[in-house]
Amino acid sequence: METDRRSLLKGIAAAATMTVVSTPALARERKKAPDDAVGLLYDATKCVGCKACVVKCKEAGDLPADIDGYGGGLYDAPEGLNESTRNVIQLVKDGDETAYVKKQCMHCIDPACVGACMMGALGKREFGIVSWDNNKCIGCRYCQVACPFGVPKFQWSKTSPRIVKCELCRDLLAEGKLPACVDACPRGAVIFGKREELLQIAHQRIDENKDLYVPKVYGETELGGTQVLYLSHLEFEKLGFRFSDDASVPETQQTVQHGIYKGFVAPLALYGLLGAVMFRNRKRDDQ
Amino acid sequence: MTTYTDQSVPVPSPRVSGERVRVRGVSFNILLFFAAVAIALIIWRFVVGLGASTALSDGYPWGLWIAFDVVTGTALACGGYALALLVYIFNKGKYHPLVRPAVLTSALGYSIAGLSVMIDVGRPWLAWKLPIKFWTWNLNSVLLEVALCIMAYTVVLWIELTPAFLEKFKDDAEWPRLRAFARKALPVFDKALIWILALGLLLPTMHQSSLGSLMLLAGPRLHGLWSTAFLPLFYLVTCLAMGYAIVVIESSFSAIAFGRKPAMRILNRLGTFAAWGTLLFVALRFIDLAIKGRLPLLARFNLYSALFWAETLLFVVPFVILLTKKNNASLGSLLRAAMLVALAGALYRFDTFLVAFDPGPGWHYFPSVSEQLITIGLVALELAIYVAVVKNFPILSGEQNVQAHHD
């Protein structure tokens, strides 16, 4: 009997090890952009840093002024994305070269925040826009831990806080209007359109001006691809884009998790096994 | 005949039936004081919001409460899980007397962790939806699994502990109805408990490993020395080691505080399990780094490599201590080794959730005074409840070799 149990336990251990070890082989499939995916194309070579988009974004979202940034409390001049800023223009200096970079939600094809969110408050909804649902969020902030771009912001100053992030002006889109930042831009530095078309335009611009652009459209493949795309004359790392892996964050995590759980069959099997072993142990004790 | 609930070993502190046990003393009052401070600060946190009461930020959205109260706290509350594995699966009945105090510590640890989560989340008034609105569940969310498992396991732990209360009530309760109820309910528990106990093994296996998986979603923002697909396995192995260590620590303190004779041979065995667990973890960790070609990261002199080596040292030293003593360590060295294991597991968790997490330039986090006082106060509350329960209900086992004193 003793050997019986030993072999059984060895079996459990072996099964557990196999599960963990075999996971990388079953990598989860990479997601594709939805057919109706829309997005932005921001061209750093065209932006003059006027910040009209920042102002219009605040108006569209009815967000309060952020006077903690530059300007000694006199101006609404956010330094980065925060609980009252869903879109921001930052200046990047690299020696003699400078660039402006626009930051807002990237609307990932496979968003880490959506993978993190417990009840689907953050979801990839119409047009592939990642939006937030007030009724499903308990404020756990796992989206903030997960987002590789540091986009979702939490209303730290509120006792009933919300998650603040760009939702690509989905209410304006529904009225047939353009996103506020696109509408505001006097230089056409940020344009709106279907992701496929934006990608074509981006590659065309690179082809027509090879000396000017870094030969890459950031967001085409990075972290599984994003619906907001970037063109730049400075390397993207210098603009603050820290990561350029092709795999999305949830891809790696879900490969591991699905590998272990096998559609919840593994936990159920383990439960049955544990119960059976304990039942047998008790029976033997009773005799 | 032995059954799982009808324990002959655990005995309550000696007292005349019906007499109220004196629980309060100077040290107990100190615990209550810290708990009261924490409760006041928790109220304040809800009045002013998280921004004003904590050092948390958009860069470090999770801080002390998640890294310590939840992630480390529940791992330190794995004594019940680790012992149940020995007693009910490996059928090692000799550890049975230690199960009840361990389950009590686990139940309290998990309850406090649950309370901490409710303080930490920004919109706790919507948390009721989590266990109920199953059609909104995002089954890809590791945090959802952790949250539901922890909720369920907390209930399971209190159910596992219920016989201890019923055993007391069946003889001592002031109301005859409660006495009658306890007498009727006890045999029911005895029959049904096996599937609850199996659940009590399944749930921690799931969520303790998933606590590690949580940081898989930090993706490229987690340092290469901590980021690995083996996070779930590493968290599972270390939580078991921490579980055995905490049983040793708890038994040692009970021996000192309540004048009980410690079962040295059993505690030595548990210490050895903990030590082998830590060694397994350290070995797997180095193999994993070697396969990934990340060993050179260890040769760089920076905060990350320093902390990694500190963790490794803390995990290996207890192994050395216990293995050189060959199952015959004194209570002192056993306690030291166990505390090192607990400390090592805690540091590993802090590093994964706070230090190795790099949200980018410009972000800093050090817990605010109120965060610290709330954490300290909740631990004090846990200890106070532990003392009160142990003195009133049949939890602890073993002979009493010293006159029990109530301070």
Describe the structure in your own words.
- Chain A has 287 residues and is an alpha+beta fold.
- Chain A has helices at 2-22, 52-61, 112-116, 142-146, 170-174, 180-184, 195-208, 249-261, 265-286, and strands at 38-43, 88-94, 97-103, 122-124, 130-132, 153-154, 163-164, 190-194, 228-231.
- In chain A, strands 8-1-9 form a three-stranded mixed beta sheet, with helices on one face. A two-stranded antiparallel sheet of chain A has the order 2-3. In chain A, strands 4-5 form a two-stranded antiparallel sheet.
- The two termini of chain A are 14 Å apart.
- Residues 21-25 of chain A have low confidence and may be disordered.
- With 407 residues, chain B is mostly helical.
- Chain B has helices spanning 26-48, 50-53, 64-76, 79-89, 99-120, 129-132, 142-172, 176-213, 231-257, 264-292, 296-299, 303-325, 331-355, 369-392.
- In chain B, α4 packs across α8 (176-213).
- Chain B is globular.
- The interface between A and B is large, with 65 and 69 residues.
Blueprint (SSEs and pairs):
The complex is a heterodimer of chains A (287) and B (407).
Chain A: H1 2-22, E1 38-43, H2 52-61, E2 88-94, E3 97-103, H3 112-116, E4 122-124, E5 130-132, H4 142-146, E6 153-154, E7 163-164, H5 170-174, H6 180-184, E8 190-194, H7 195-208, E9 228-231, H8 249-261, H9 265-286
Parallel strand pairs in A: 1-9
Antiparallel strand pairs in A: 1-8, 2-3, 4-5, 6-7
Chain B: H1 26-48, H2 50-53, H3 64-76, H4 79-89, H5 99-120, H6 129-132, H7 142-172, H8 176-213, H9 231-257, H10 264-292, H11 296-299, H12 303-325, H13 331-355, H14 369-392
Helix pairs in contact in B: 1-14, 3-5, 3-13, 4-5, 4-8, 4-9, 5-7, 5-14, 7-8, 8-9, 9-10, 9-13, 10-12, 10-13, 12-13
